[in-house]
C-alpha cells in the first residue's frame, strides 16, 4: 500500500520496523504507539494515521497545542497455533478429532 500522506505509514516487513524512512518525522506520541504495538504484537502490517487535524475545531480541543491527540491504527499479525488442550474450557476452544 502506498502512503497517502506524510502521517500515514504501512509496514509490510520486519525490516520496515527496524529501519523506518529517514525523511519522515513523527512526534513522541506516534513513536510511543509504534513502539508499543510492534513490541507487543510483532505485526506483519501496521498503519498509524494521525487524525488530530480532524478534531482541531472540537470544543474539547480548544487551547490544546499538541498535534498528536487522535490516532487511528490498523494492524495485522500472524498468531501462532495454540494447543487447545492447554486452554481453559471457559474459552470454548474445541479440539478437532
Automatic annotation (TrEMBL):
This is Uncharacterized protein. InterPro entries: BolA, BolA-like_sf. Gene3D superfamilies: BolA-like. Belongs to the BolA/IbaG family. PANTHER family: BOLA-LIKE PROTEIN 1, PTHR46230. It comes from the Eukaryota. It comes from Jimgerdemannia flammicorona. It holds the Pfam family BolA. One of its GO terms (biological process) is iron-sulfur cluster assembly.
Amino acid at each position: 500500500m502506498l502512503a497517502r500522506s506524510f502521517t500515514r505509514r504501512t509496514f509490510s516487513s520486519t525490516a520496515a520496523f527496524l529501519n523506518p524512512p529517514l525523511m519522515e518525522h513523527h512526534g513522541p506520541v506516534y513513536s510511543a504507539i509504534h513502539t508499543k504495538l510492534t513490541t507487543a504484537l510483532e505485526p506483519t502490517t501496521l498503519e498509524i494515521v494521525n487524525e488530530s487535524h480532524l478534531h482541531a475545531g472540537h470544543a474539547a480541543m480548544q487551547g490544546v497545542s499538541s498535534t498528536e491527540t487522535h490516532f487511528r491504527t490498523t494492524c495485522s499479525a500472524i498468531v501462532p497455533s495454540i494447543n487447545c488442550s492447554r486452554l481453559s474450557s471457559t474459552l470454548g476452544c474445541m479440539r478437532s478429532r
